[in-house]
Amino acid sequence: MIPFWIGGFILAAVIFTVVVVLASRRENKKLVVERYEIRSPKIPEAFDDFRIVFLTDLHCSEFGEENRELIEMVKKCRPHMILAGGDMLISKEDKSIEVPLKLMHQLAEKYPVYYADGNHELRLMRNEEIFGVRYKEYIHELKEYGVWHMSNETVILEQEGQFIHLTAVDLEPKFYQRFRIPEMKQEDMEQAVGKAFRDRFQILLAHNPNYFETYAQWGADLVLAGHFHGGMVRIPKINRGVISPQFQLFPKYDAGEFHIGNSTMILSRGLGNHSIKLRLFNKPEISCITLKSRRDKTWH
């Protein structure tokens, strides 16, 4: 016969688990908009009040039928451009790619959309022996919809004869290792995407936030990242994420806005999740970013 105290402990553990699961399922659907304002003297006057919606880590999630809730919330941000930061799908053989394709199609009908790969897209690309040509088909469909897919390249964005740069970097598999953070050097960035054009405002789509120091050293003025899902569980009051997908406890970069010198990183909590569908105190995020031109010398 099980002692009373052990039975009580088991019952409490079961109740706690049920409460966590139910709370997480509810939180996974509580989509919110987080607003950020980026000020820099490098932002041309033609890009003053230029609005960017940044979406990342959808992982095939849906908010309303065919993501209508998500699309409506994007519309309220009145964006000039949509940036997708990767991991919009799930790299498993039994997972459909229809949800992110439909979302990108609907967004591209209304806005310019630029799409960078995360580790899930890159896993599809690098493992054709497992996934076949699914990655090629996916990218082909994105391009058919008018989405600009970016892979280790820079696009020059123009407004009224003034310019900013948008770069997307595909990180090597070693930079997604679990339990450790390999060193990334500025040379690694330059080998992948070349040198930054430092006289113009430089946006960098880099899925993994661990290497913000390197991105800043390379020359990124604004880094947009995801991957960490906000730390899955966030601790209220201190507002810290508990664990990253690479099994880092209390990661240095978990979610929100970070600064190194004149570089800013916006790290989205992302929209979905995959293997462990856990979110607590960590609502899915649409990032609405407004660029502000400044003629003075103070950046932050």
TrEMBL record:
Pfam families, per database record: Metallophos
Keyword Transmembrane helix attached: yes
InterPro entries: Calcineurin-like_PHP, Metallo-depent_PP-like, Metallophosphoesterase_sf
GO BP terms: lipid A biosynthetic process
Protein origin, superkingdom: Bacteria
Name of the molecule in the record: Phosphoesterase
GO terms, molecular function: metal ion binding; UDP-2,3-diacylglucosamine hydrolase activity
Transmembrane segments annotated in the record for this chain: 6-23
Keywords: Hydrolase, Membrane, Metal-binding, Transmembrane, Transmembrane helix
Domain Calcineurin-like phosphoesterase: 50-230
Signal sequence residues: none
The organism of origin for this protein: Anaerostipes butyraticus
A cellular component annotation (GO) from this entry: membrane
